[in-house]
Predict the structure.
Amino acid sequence: MESKGSILIKLMLLLQYLSVLCVSQNFDFFFFVQQWPGSACNTQQGCCYPTTGKPPADFAISGLFPSNNDGSYPYNCDTNNPFQQSQISDLRSNLQSNWPSLLCPSSDGSYTWSAAWDIFGTCSESVFNQHDYFAAALNRKDHADLFQALFGVQPHGASVDLDSMKGTIKDSVGFNSFIECNVDSSGNSQLYQIYLCVDTSGSYFMDCPVSPKNVVECGSTFLIPSF
């Protein structure tokens, strides 16, 4: 007969094993999304500049979203690990420049980052802690300079061709993309967000295995409003 000590050790080892299973990878890739602020503001709803002032005329991070190959995506994965500003204090200035909030009323961006971590970031805990999640998004933006790639060829404030833009992005980043439009205050289709895909380590771009869910791509031509 096994001793109580031996049984206890086995139970502890089992619990450790189960805890590893619980934090195992539960997604297949990330959608990395950047937003053109001109199109976020040039709508009937409008926008509000952050309390830190008007953001740069550059693409802004919209999110780093864990996703699955079947088109589904996890969310709200760990309510016991809420966003803590202290975890990203050294990234704050960088986030304000590259992941600003254009929601109304004006804010310093903390609410946007909190929602990003609580809803989606917690689903990447097998890969990232809070700091590393935001650092990975900033790093991917550094490696996908869409502003230079697109507007070095075609200045914003003009009409563009969808296939041409996709080709320019692929030439720059090396992989395919999805391009989402919204509608301006006059009902014209305009560039809104660009989706790229990133591997589960958050380190490398890849071809997207599936289109983003509930996102309708732009038509053959659309506008890029100034900002």
In short: The first strand starts at residue 29 and ends at 35. The first helix runs from residue 4 to 22.
